[in-house]
Amino acid sequence: MIKKKFKITDMHCSSCALTIDMNLEDLEGVKAAKTSYAKGETEIEFDPNKLDEQQILATIKKSGYSAVPLDS
Predict the structure, then answer these.
(1) pLDDT of residue 71
(2) Which of 32, 50, 59, 66 has its Cα between 20 and 30 A from that of 7?
(3) Would you tell me which CATH number, out of the four given (1.20.1530.20, 3.30.70.100, 3.40.50.720, 1.20.1440.130), belongs to the domain 2-70?
């Protein structure tokens, strides 16, 4: 398992963060997703053998938000 952070834009409230978390946690290989509306970022713990960064970014985009990876 690895952890990665992503900067999220276009969130308007804590419900936006919850939507992102639920959609990310539905992905196979995700152990946990924690999105902070206040910080404007999400941290995801996942198995890199089952999931890659592009799939995570695509899921965030499908949720209605933009994201870019943050250097850890």
Answers:
(1) 75
(2) 50
(3) 3.30.70.100
